[in-house]
């Protein structure tokens, strides 16, 4: 049960883990997680590429078309794990720098290293339980309720993480996450607005060309 100790007794276990902060270990944990996700996506692309390749090759009576599309699909098995590993490490690195910065504004005395390391420690146990919860979802009636309870507990774990890593009260740790959500929402609006503006511009340019 030691593997799940950080989920069962999060505050106590995280406080113990702070004595052995290792950023390089955290990099590897996030990279492995990203690589596994990338491999799954790569396999999906490979299967999809094979199906499309067979369909396209049969429709055009051209085996080269099948070879090209299927080849691109299988190439994804190699590229996606590497790409996702890099993206996961970089995005996590940036995100927990932001977490540490906001926590300091609220009086925290933690560091990026502490936030990043504890997040990496939580990662694998959370994934295992989330897989179990995915299966539990299939249970009629109670599956959804159990998943809701687990979701709320996951939120609590993330609050405890920020609280322990930055020596903040639970209340201030909640504020950190609220600020992060607000910032994320605003950035999302800006990105959506930029995409919409680009789309409108492209449509307008196309209309002008036709006229």
Automatic annotation (TrEMBL):
Signal peptide: none annotated. Residues 4-188 form the Yip1 domain. It is found in: Membrane. GO terms for cellular component: membrane. The chain crosses the membrane at residues 30-53, 65-87, 93-110, 122-142, 148-168, 175-203. Keywords: Membrane, Transmembrane, Transmembrane helix. It comes from the Archaea. It holds the Pfam family Yip1. It is a multi-pass membrane protein. This is YIP1 family protein.
């Amino acid at each position: 049960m030691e593997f799940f100790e950080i989920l069962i007794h999060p505050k106590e276990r995280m406080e113990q883990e702070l004595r052995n902060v290792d950023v390089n270990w955290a990099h590897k944990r996030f990279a492995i997680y990203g690589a596994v996700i990338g491999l799954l996506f790569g396999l999906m692309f490979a299967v999809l590429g094979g199906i499309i390749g067979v369909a396209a090759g049969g429709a055009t009576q051209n085996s080269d078309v099948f070879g090209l599309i299927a080849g691109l699909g299988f190439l994804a098995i190699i590229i996606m794990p590497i790409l996702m590993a890099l993206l996961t490490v970089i995005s996590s690195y940036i995100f927990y720098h932001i977490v540490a910065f906001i926590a300091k504004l609220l009086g925290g005395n933690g560091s990026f290293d502490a936030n990043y390391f504890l997040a990496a420690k939580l990662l694998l146990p959370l994934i295992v339980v989330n897989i179990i919860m995915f299966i539990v979802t299939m249970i009629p009636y109670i599956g959804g309720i159990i998943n809701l309870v687990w979701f709320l507990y996951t939120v609590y774990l993330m609050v405890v993480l920020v609280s322990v890593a930055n020596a903040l009260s639970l209340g201030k740790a909640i504020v950190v996450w609220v600020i992060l959500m607000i910032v994320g929402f605003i950035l999302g609006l800006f990105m959506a607005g930029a995409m919409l503006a680009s789309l409108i511009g492209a449509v307008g340019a196309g209309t002008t060309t036709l006229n």
